[in-house]
Amino acid sequence: MTSEVGSRRRRGRRDAGAVTPLQAAFASVVADLAPGEVVSYGEVARRAGRRGAARAVGAFLAEHGGALPWWRVVRADGTLASHKVADQARRLRAEGVEVRAGRVVDALPPSLA
User: Fold this and answer.
1) Which of 25, 63, 64, 82 has the fewest CB atoms within 10 Å, i.e. the most exposed one?
2) Is residue 91 a part of any domain in this protein?
């Protein structure tokens, strides 16, 4: 009994490194961000064709963002990722982005600032 149920469960699992087509679209948008270009999680979702999926972008970057320029993505109000503020601020400053009090200054497009 256990072997049949257990094998069905194992077959249903995704590879931990695999990404969905939506996540691949998020990755493409983030990979295309130029140095010094800062966008919100919502803007990444919009560019990927999934307006309103900002939380999904955040979850994706938390799990798979290591090889991507994740630091160029911030909250809609310009605040940095709460668990990586110092690292994100350092990386953004190195690209010429002004960061004050855990927030980007004048880096978001006007519609998002």
Assistant:
1) 82
2) yes
Q: Are 59 and 76 in contact (CB under 8 A)?
A: no
Residue 69 Cα distances to 2, 13, 27, 72, angstroms: 44, 28, 9, 6
Q: Please tell me the distance from the alpha carbon of residue 87 to that of residue 89, in angstroms, as a whole number.
A: 5
Q: What is the CATH number of the domain that holds 56?
A: 1.10.10.10
Q: What's the structural domain count of the chain?
A: 1
Q: What would the two tokens of residue 13 be?
A: 């699992």
User: Considering only CA atoms, which of 82, 86, 113, 112 is closest in space to residue 99?
Assistant: 86
Location of structure tokens 């002004």: 98
Domain hosting residue 82, numbered range: 20-104
Q: Cα separations (Å) of 7 from 14, 18, 26?
A: 13, 20, 32
Residue 93 lies in a domain: yes
pTM for the predicted model, two decimal places:
0.79
